[in-house]
Structure formats: C-alpha cells, structure tokens
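quick one, 443 residues, struct below
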Amino acid sequence: MPVAGLRKAAHETVAGLPREFWWLWTSTLVNRLGAFVATFMALYLTLDRGYSASYAGLVASLYGLGGVVSSLGAGVMTDRLGRRPTMLIAQLSTAVSVAVLGFMIHPVAIAGVAFVVGMASNASRPAVQAMMADIVRPEDRVRAFSLNYWAINMGFAVSSTGAGFIAEYSYLAGFMGEAALTLLCAVVVFLKVPESRPEVVPRPEGAPAPDDVRMGTVLRDGRFMGVVGLSFLVALIFQQGYVGLPVAMGVDGLSSSDFGTAIAVNGVLIVALQIPVTRLIQDHDPRRLLILSSLLAGYGFGLTAFAGSVGVYALTVCVWTLAEIVNAPTQTGIVVQLSPVHGRGRYQGMYTMSWSVAGLVAPLMSGFMIDHYGAVWLWGTCAVLGTVAAFGYWLLMRNLSFQDPAAAVTAAPVAPPVAPPVAGAPPAAVAPSVERAATEPMV
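---
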C-alpha cells in the first residue's frame, strides 16, 4: 500500500474517538505491559520456591477462581459506585496484592494471596468495558473495542518477552515491576479519566428506575444469558490454544520451543491484523460475524487433529486466530447492545465471568479427553462446540434488530458531540444505535 494510503488508513482507524477513550486505552496498555506475574508464576513456584507442579496448578486455579468471584462483584460496583472508582480500587488492590505476593513464603499464604491477586486483577474489566460503551458512539464501538483488544495483546506480547529476562535476574523484581506499572495505570485513570456513568433522567410515573437493574434482572434476561452461554463455549475453544495445544504437541514429540514458535503466530497475527481486519468488518452484520468466527474457531482447532509438524500446527493457529480477531470486538459490542444503559456494569461482569469460568474448565476438559480418548477427540469436540455456538448465535439473534434508534438517555459528560448530519441523510443513518434503554422490556 502507498504511504498516502497507509496514512489514510491509520487516520480512519483512530479518527472520531474521544480523548477520554485514548487515556483509557493508554491505561490498558500500561497495565498489560506489566503483566509479568501470570507469565512466570508456574516457573517461580516450581524452580525458585521448589514446590511441586500440582501445587503450582492449585495456585493457578485459585488465581482463576478469584477472577470468577470478582467478575460479578465488580459489575455491581461499576453500576453502583461508578466506573472510575471501581477501576481505581481494582488497580490499587492489584498493585498492593502483587507486591505482597512477592514476599510470601508459606504455601498457604502464597495460595491465599494469589486468590486475592486474581480477584483484584480481574475486577477492572467490567468497568473498562462499561466506560468504553459510555464514551464511544455506537457506530464506533466495534473499532474502539478492537483497538483496546489490540493494546491488550501488544502489552502482553511485550510483557511475556520481558518476563523471561526479568525472571533470570530476579523474580521479586518481576513482582515489584508489575506492582509499579499497575500503580502507574491507576495514576493515569485518576488524573486523566473522568467518570462516565450515565446520569439519571426524569422518568414517567410508574416507570422502573435504573436501580431496578439488578443481578436478578441479568439472570432473567434470556437472550443475554444465552449469549453468555455461547461466549463460554467459544472461550472454552480458544483456551485450548494454551492448555490443550502444548500437551498435544508434546504427545507428538515436539518440544516446548516448538510450541512457542506455533503459538507466537497468534500474537503476531493479532498485532498485525487486528486493526485492518476490524476496518473491513465494522460495517458488517455482527450476527454473521459471530457465526463465522464460531465456525472458524471450532474448525480451526478441529484441523489440529491432522497436524503433525510445527508448520501445520502454525497454520491451524492462523485459522483460529482470525476467528479471535473477529470475535473479540464483535462479541463485546453485542454485550453492550443487549445491556440496559444503567446496568452495563452488571452485564459486562456476567460476560467477563463466562471467560473466567472457561479458564477454569478448559484445563480439566483437555486433560481428561487427552488422557482417556486422545487429542483427536479434543479437537473434534472443539469443532462440535464451534458448530453449536454458531447455530446458537443464529437462533438467539435472528429477530434482533440492529437499526433501532437509541432510547433517550442523558449521555455521560465526557461523551463526544455527534457529528452534524449529512445533508439529505435520515437521522438513523447518522448515528444508528442498538443499545437498549433501562426501561425496555428484557427478553
């Protein structure tokens, strides 16, 4: 592409997003740049502390369980306390708990603090996603979520590389480094990111108040809970890239460095393709995108059954990575569309929990199937799960309108002004929105 074309593409990618979004994006990048501990925790416990692999697995499970527990609590906090306070509490708690974990010696103390770290580090996600939905116009949300996902993967790629070098020098330095960068993330939020929780507007007598959106409301929302269930299936598939794939490659006689080479394709493709692919898909029907990404994920892992060399494994990684690139921003956008404005925190918390639970179930699933039936059955199961998810998305969203105008809700004070309408264009063509107001009946 000519230089002028590249400049135009870059401008179109970042143009139109509010300044507050970019500060939030910066805080996400800083946070992921410091994600050292999760990368080297297993090595730290087994090599440096001398604990068994089983104990390291227990600590990892407790870390994941903490994320499951905090997802719902953080969602409630996001709606009640606000987005900004929830992020600050989560980030400060993460910084303190990570620093404390570096000094823990007793196995019970390590396990307990790891559980707290898992809770704290996962608690900011519902708030971040809810704030992005608040401050970004509906037509720009897929692009915004994609840019945020790109920052997460870019930061993690850098931190994973740095973690290896830091671990050779000092594991404690890794703990302190993550605590420092997480604290810097909190400083950025405190200084540059204002609160975005939508204000309450006067309502007709008898209409439900925003506070009526409770966890029970979320659980009774059949369509949304269906999406949560489907996101769990998709997450269960993607998790196999980090729990089932290395085991299967080992069974085929390949080394850990071979796995590193294959899985590196995932990070490289996300960093290289996330933004251009999003530009291609942002105007397409999200229902079709979710169906397509589910099939690509399922059959991408299904093709792994025919792999026997590093090159073929890498090719299968390419297939399901494309599914991940399409699924991540589209899925998050659908969650926003199905969420009442004043219940975004709770809805995002429930959605985040589906991924946390998948992170707990995936290792058990892959270990059981590979031990008892072989890796081929695991990859076949992934293909089945992808097909089921695709059919589920078609079934749940076949009557969902993506052209309804947004209900009247007072925008957050930091929301950007809507661009003036194009001459002759109908209002719906200027700023279409599909988000549901808190007063709309839930499916």
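The mean pLDDT is 82.
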